[in-house]
């Protein structure tokens, strides 16, 4: 009998609140999720500006209802560091309002402004529990997909950050149709060797079109997954855990009989919320269809939506045949954002997820053998590695 992830985590199950600090961004990334959900940035950016006093009080109200579970406030955007002073104001205000109650902060960033923030707001960066930096492979690939950013500058910024403080850094790669997982992994390994990144996460982009050359993409992706597993086993044979978050989570699930029991982000559970422009949302990337509350200038939340409606977000599971899928224990159902924008692409991703799970199953006996040989347990794969997928996005 399988054990649901919630039951395994128990009181360690975190509560996550994403705060959109600003809608502004200096980059022009191909396939920007904000543009997909909301249209032109100039049409929404101004309305997403954080009001620190209001938003800190709203967060405080939400945090009081978490029953003592670990809580994380994640700064989101746009590019949050364009409004670092607002992040700092929220952080300071929340620390005062919560009067010593444990709370962690994390940041999603493109990494361009880390050095500037280090000079202007060192206490802010020092108080971050985790920084997620978007890097989509080596220089040529990254700068093609994330126009307006410079990978060499991001590396310099990470070096300055790590020289000053030990804040863990997660390299987050978004795979577009022309991208290579292997290229992203190899860039991570270079950064890891220099002590600039600690963890690696990848996912496949959400967009409104299917993969046009799916068979060719599938061949490349399977080859890259084979390289990933070869690297993983090589590390494990020497007693090291390759800090690739989704793969460690998958192996832990297989070894421990764990099933996720919900979508990767768990949006349908109405436990984690996004604050964006004075509104409370179940997911900022879904658009404006599901507003759960309006945040008054005082910070009081006027609830206006029914969280029970969110169960309808995963009604597509019947159409996808999730209950019969051999990867359902890991996947839990595709991302509602992707289903909304391209059901056909979602079905393609279902096939790729099954491929990932099948390859992991084939390697499972060797993983089990190497864990025993090196004195590691399956739980060593999950804490801290697989656990950190809770603070990412969706499964690959």
From TrEMBL:
Keyword entries, A-Z: Iron, Iron-sulfur, Metal-binding, S-adenosyl-L-methionine
Entry cofactors: [4Fe-4S] cluster
Domain called Radical SAM core: residue spans: 20-164
Pfam family name, one: Radical_SAM
GO molecular function terms attached to this record: iron-sulfur cluster binding; metal ion binding; oxidoreductase activity
Taxonomic superkingdom: Bacteria
InterPro entries documented for this protein: Aldolase_TIM, rSAM, rSAM_sf, Sulphatase_maturase_rSAM
The protein, known as: Radical SAM protein
């Amino acid at each position: 009998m399988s054990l649901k992830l919630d039951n395994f985590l128990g009181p360690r199950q975190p509560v996550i609140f994403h705060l959109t600090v600003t809608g502004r961004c200096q980059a022009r990334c191909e396939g920007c999720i904000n543009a997909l959900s909301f249209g032109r940035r100039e049409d929404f950016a101004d309305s997403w500006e954080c009001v620190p006093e209001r938003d800190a009080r709203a967060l405080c109200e939400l945090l009081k209802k978490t029953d003592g579970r670990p809580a994380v406030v994640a700064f989101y955007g746009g590019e949050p560091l364009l409004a670092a002073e607002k992040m700092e104001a929220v952080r300071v205000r929340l620390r005062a309002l919560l009067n010593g109650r444990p709370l962690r902060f994390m940041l999603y960033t493109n990494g361009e402004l880390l050095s500037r923030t280090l000079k202007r707001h060192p206490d802010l960066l020092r108080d971050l529990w985790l920084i997620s930096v978007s890097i989509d492979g080596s220089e040529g690939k990254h700068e093609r997909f994330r126009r307006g950013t410079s990978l060499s500058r991001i590396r310099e910024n990470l070096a300055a950050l790590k020289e000053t403080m030990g804040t863990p850094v997660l390299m987050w790669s978004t795979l577009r149709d022309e991208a290579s997982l292997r290229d992203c992994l190899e860039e991570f390994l270079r950064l890891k060797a220099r002590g600039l990144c600690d963890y690696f996460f990848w996912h496949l982009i959400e967009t409104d079109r299917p993969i046009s050359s799916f068979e060719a993409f599938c061949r490349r992706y399977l080859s890259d997954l084979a390289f990933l597993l070869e690297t993983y086993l090589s590390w494990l044979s020497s007693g090291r855990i390759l800090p690739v978050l989704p793969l460690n989570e998958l192996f832990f699930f297989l070894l421990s009989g764990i099933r996720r029991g919900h979508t990767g982000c768990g949006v349908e559970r109405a436990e984690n919320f996004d604050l964006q422009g004075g509104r409370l949302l179940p997911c900022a990337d879904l658009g404006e269809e599901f507003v759960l509350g309006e945040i008054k200038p005082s910070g009081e939340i006027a609830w206006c939506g029914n969280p029970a409606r969110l169960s309808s977000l995963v009604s597509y599971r019947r159409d996808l045949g999730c209950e019969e899928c051999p990867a359902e224990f890991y996947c839990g159902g595709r991302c509602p954002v992707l289903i909304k924008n391209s059901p056909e692409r979602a079905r393609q991703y279902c096939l790729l997820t099954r491929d990932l799970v099948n390859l992991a199953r084939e390697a499972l006996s060797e993983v089990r053998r190497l864990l025993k040989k090196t004195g590691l347990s399956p739980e060593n794969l999950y804490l801290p590695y697989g656990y950190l997928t809770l603070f990412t996005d969706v499964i690959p």
